[in-house]
Predict the 3D structure of the following.
Amino acid sequence: MSEPLRPIEWTGSAVRVIDQTELPGRLVRISLDSVDDVVDAIARLAVRGAPQLGAIGALGVVLAMDQGARERWTAPELDAAIDRIRDARPTAVNLAWGVDRVRPRMAQGREAVLAAALGIIEQDERVNHAIGRNGADWIQARVPGRVRVLTHCNTGALATTAWGTALGVIRELHARGALGVVYVDETRPLLQGARLTAWELVQDGIPHLVQADGAAASTILRGLVDVAIIGADRVVANGDTANKIGSVGIALACADAGVPFIVAAPESSVDLQTATGADIDIEMRDGAEVLSWGGVRVAPEQSRAYNPAFDVTPARLISALVTEEAVLEIRAGEVPRDHIGIGVL
Ligand code: MRU
């Protein structure tokens, strides 16, 4: 296994991140040192994935404070700049969570904010390993032998700060010698599965097959999958879960086939303030992402697109929510509040 991938570095005055739009062709790191840099990187998915957005949001507050000091911003100007970061994408609750977690420290000064932001990064790695262990334990208690897994989008180190959530469970199964193969949905339109998850699995020598998103239901119904495991951008109070567009179709196929469908996510992705999935703000992205392929227009010029970045899987289709604290069975329609926010880690 190669060196663990850590996609976020703090240089002292900038955040160095992997520009994920360049993968798998080139491993390029870019420096973000202004609010515009951060907002742009989030908007064009150079940085992405819910937990990673939380870390970037928190460090973004430090960058905003530094820029504000350089450019002599007023307090309302600084607040507005931080809000721009917080609102750069709406669906993953982690972005707002990361900003909100460090913002109250501003009164104590820049170093206090920085320490809190770096704390989030350090905690994220431990959280992900705990998710990996919890998920692998749950799966191994139900599936004997080598497990055949299906996953969607990218939930690995590239979506977090290290190791990954759903991909962390897959890595843990592999480390235990309990992984058969991973079916990796390509994840249209931006191919986080084919470009990013497959790249991470290659680095770790994990056997996998990239498949078109449209193949997923058939792969499940043909009995080729023992468990589907995805990440989350937001798990709300009744257990409904927003994740990359295409997730709910996998859940429906799993329900029909009697295959467990698992959501692996840190507590920072759980939003108990939002009641149901219908209340989640689903990001709509530029139609060009669907109408073009590799930057070349493929749909007729007259065609317009429908391009939601996420969908909502109802709690009734989710076999288990794996967090760093517990494995919660939420089909009943409520995330058990006494299991969220315990903060053992
Ligand atoms: O648009 P993206 O690439 O940010 O979407 C990411 C996902 O949907 C992930 O599955 C989710 O954020 C969980 S990442 C651990």
